[in-house]
Amino acid sequence: MNLIVLGRYAPFPAAGGACSGYLLEHEGRRVLIDCGSGVLSKLQSIVPLRDIDVVVLSHLHGDHTSDLMVLRYAADADLRHGCRPSGIHVYSPTEPSEEYSRLSYKEAIIPHGVGDRDDLVLGGMRFSFTAVDHPFPCLAMTVRADGGTFAFSGDTALCPQLLDVARGADLFLCEASLPHEEAPGGYRGHLSARQAGEVAREAGAARLLLTHLWPFHDLSRLVAEASEAFGGETALAEEGATYHV
Ligand SMILES: [Zn+2]
Questions:
Q1: Please, how many CA atoms are within 13 Å of residue 113, restricted to the half-sphere of its CB?
Q2: Within its chain, how far is the Cα of 159 from the centroid?
Q3: Facing residues of 121 across strands?
Q4: Partner of 140 for a Cys bridge, out of 31, 33, 165, 229, CB 3.0 to 4.6 A?
Q5: What is the CA(11)–ligand 1 centre distance, in A?
Q6: pLDDT averaged over the chain?
Q7: Which of 47, 33, 53 is nearest to 212 (CA)?
Q8: Distance between Cα 65 and ligand 1 center (Å)
Q9: How many other C-beta atoms are found inside a 10 Å radius of the C-beta of residue 240?
Q10: Rounded CA gap, 208 and 44, in Å?
Q11: Which domains does the chain have, with CATH numbers?
Q12: Model confidence over 89-110: pLDDT tens digits?
């Protein structure tokens, strides 16, 4: 598998950057994970939008979903012009229901609900979903293909089930929303960089990639903090970079 980082920021993009968005590729097939602000612009420098037919949303907060609200126009136009065989299948939690009900669009966006412990093969890759701790229901995911394991935290506070998600991952993409001293007692629905490193260490992950970065934080401090807690290979997710799993 290859992971291409499209966007790494939250809850709004830095200038020229994008919010949560990751393209997972395997044997010429692709799944887009999350579709936040700025992701469509980044995505088109890699693949035409008509090549995207599966999207997975970790949860329904706007910094993970907002560009889906315009991707639907591209998909609808491509369908009308015969440039794509079908609409885009979108897999996400079904709550909050008012957010979920906004996803469907003509034949262009076809939503499917997924939940805790669901297992699905998408784009030839096996996705295992785990509910984590966030104000909106959020699904972390472990993705396996060809003996490689990729894990993504989604948005979450520290919770025991995150260890299972990251257990033995070759690459663990984990949110690191803030420096630890900013909220030593924990922060509602999010992880500090130190906590991301601790989870990676306890789970025995091989590599840690930090994402969900708030533009106003000192990013070098976040990576130093996570790296110290993990003790293994740690980096900030770089937009446009490809990571082999
Ligand atoms: Zn969120």
A1: 11
A2: 18
A3: 126
A4: 165
A5: 8
A6: 96
A7: 33
A8: 10
A9: 12
A10: 26
A11: 2-244 (3.60.15.10)
A12: 999 999 999 999 999 999 999 9
